[in-house]
Amino acid sequence: MPELTDYSGTWVVDASHTTIGFKVRHAMVTTVNGRFGAFAGTLTLNGTAPGESSAAVTIETASIDTSSAQRDEHLRSADFFDSATYPELRFASTSVSVTGESFTVVGDLTIREVTAPVTLNGTLGGVATDPFGNVRAGFEATATIERRDFGLTWNAALDKGGWLVGERVTITLDVSAIKQG
Known about the structure:
Blueprint: E1 9-13, E2 19-26, E3 30-36, E4 39-45, E5 54-60, E6 64-65, H1 69-76, E7 88-99, E8 102-111, E9 114-129, E10 135-146, E11 165-179
Antiparallel strand pairs: 1-4, 1-11, 2-3, 2-11, 3-6, 4-5, 5-7, 7-8, 8-9, 9-10, 10-11
């Protein structure tokens, strides 16, 4: 495992090797998984003083993909993300802490211009130079949010009770970032 100081520097998220995903209960009996295909992010990491690190990410809401064109169009509609009006989700960190190979990033997530705090818990994946000379760092993290906190309130009642779409959404990140400079 590399030293924490190996992570120091400015890093750009490599969208072609990163997954920003989510999962949510559907019809109270299964889980739907999805991901966003278009996003950009920058990490400024300080391996000597991790608390001075920061992360910022923007995600294009229209890039949602749940492997169902009909569902994806519904998620882009005003019932959910309203991609025509709110084309981006935004995350900006407010604090970072690292303990061993684990980290916690607290930040503000903005969906539909509603901002609420989110805590990402994750692990450092390592630092390596790829065959093309890029220095890469890997990270994995998860967070759970209540979609209603962001104004995502659409739902449909089920005939035997309960709701079509779960309230809790698990966010999953598998990030590859390339060091700049």
